Amino acid sequence: MPRKFSKGAIDRAGNFFRADDSQIDARDWFEMFDPAYEALSHWRTLHAHPLRVVTNTLKSRATSIASSAIVAQRLKRFASVSSKLLKRPEMALTRMQDIAGCRAVLPSVDDVYRLKRTYDLYAARSRPTSPDLVGLRDYIMQPKPDGYRSLHLVMKYRTSNDRFSDCAGLRVEIQIRSKLQHVWAMAVETASSLTGQALKAGEGREPWKEFFRLMSTAIAIKENLPIVAGTDEGSVYRKIRRLARQLKVILVFDGMGGTVDLFSTEDARPAHRQDLYLLTFDAREQKTYYHMFRSDRFDDAVAAYGTAERSHVNDPDVHVVLVEVGSLRDLRAAYPSYFSDASQFTDLVREFCNLGSSSRPFRSDDRAVFPVEYGYDPGETWNVDDDWPDKYSQ
Predict the structure, then answer these.
(1) Which of 135, 141, 201, 130 is nearest to 173 (CA)?
(2) What domain range includes position 317?
(3) 284 lies in a domain?
(4) Residue 302 resides in a domain
(5) pLDDT, position 12
(6) pTM of this structure
């Protein structure tokens, strides 16, 4: 796809979406919105080919380690892009590293670091015409303050094919996490929708934030990982039980379980090897609509994505996303929050509540056994870009 907009024009579009719209006349705002959205959408669509290349490699490597690995890809939602621009006034749209993102969910942390090791080996011998690993951030060994855990890698697309020369230099973010870490992350998204709080962005009421920090620590103990800063191993289960009762966590999650209706906007048919799904989740009505596109109908899918986003641009309760996965089963596993399925998370809550005060002593030498075994330094954080630490937000 040839570039229709200069980087300057794309960054100006980003500046429009971070501007204070209360200072702009409503009629002027709507006139300015369409060209700004067109530039943003074009920039996002340019990432589609690099994303597919990186995702195909990720899927091949992940499933060679664990056949049950779930791999999915997505182009960042407009609402997420504009929200990040508002929170990061210094960030240019063309410098946002996670416009295109893919994710691998593996059974164990051991598997996560086995997969990470394949990228280490690849980086040591990559060709100038293949995607380049340009950065790593390990939020598993060094979790975020809110409890978020995942390995983040960034690939820079390179090619010798003139057809895709306009995509050269674009970045794709890879997230690699264990099943339990994914269950936690999706529960945060679900709770955000159910309670009307921006918990994923680190905002919201303190009891809920504390509850998820404690749940992350309990999962860390289960996976022999460092706990979240500011939490205490000795009291973690007792505090989880207290907050779960206070916030009625089980009732909140179980109460909506199974209430989300799934509607297809086309006739059911067998899934292809890799299909595109346009998901529209209405948090008020607890309904998820999806439209399935064959992978060779990408342009149609992107056009439908843009139409759906524009129609709900001022409705924070409606979430639209375009994702590519291997099957509807994988879609549910990769994005359970869109189907309000938190059963695995509530099973964990019950398990930790039942443990009460029986927290076992945590040996510090347990925490980094498997990373070292696979040649990993727990303190490793590196980058090519000087401003790497600023590139990440969950």
Answers:
(1) 135
(2) 258-341
(3) yes
(4) yes
(5) 92
(6) 0.81
Please state the domain count of the chain: 1
Which two three-digit tokens encode residue 188? 């945060």
290-314: burial string, b at 16+ Cβ within 10 Å, e else:
bbbbeeeebeebbebbbebbeebee
CB neighbour list of residue 318: distance below 8 Å, 6 or more residues apart: 280, 281, 282, 283, 312
The per-residue pLDDT for range 169-211, each reduced to its tens digit, is 999 999 999 999 999 999 988 887 777 677 777 777 889 999 9
- Helices H, strands E: what count in the chain? 13, 10
CA gap 204, 172 in Å, rounded = 29
**Residues linked to residue 173 through DSSP beta bridges, in sequence order:** 101, 154
Q: Which helix (H) or strand (E) holds 137?
A: strand 132-138
pLDDT in tens, 240-282: 999 998 988 888 777 555 444 545 444 344 444 568 888 888 7
Residue 223 placed within a domain: no
From the list 262, 281, 80, 44, the residue with the least C-alpha distance to 170 is 44
Helices within 47-131 (DSSP H only): 48-65, 78-87, 109-125
Tokens of 74: 């997505």
**Could you give the angle at the alpha carbon of 140 between the alpha carbons of 134 and 144, nearest 5°?**
95
The span from the CA of 303 to the CA of 301, in Å, is 5
Residues 6+ apart with CB under 8 A from 95: 387, 391
Using DSSP, state whether 266 is helix, strand or coil: coil
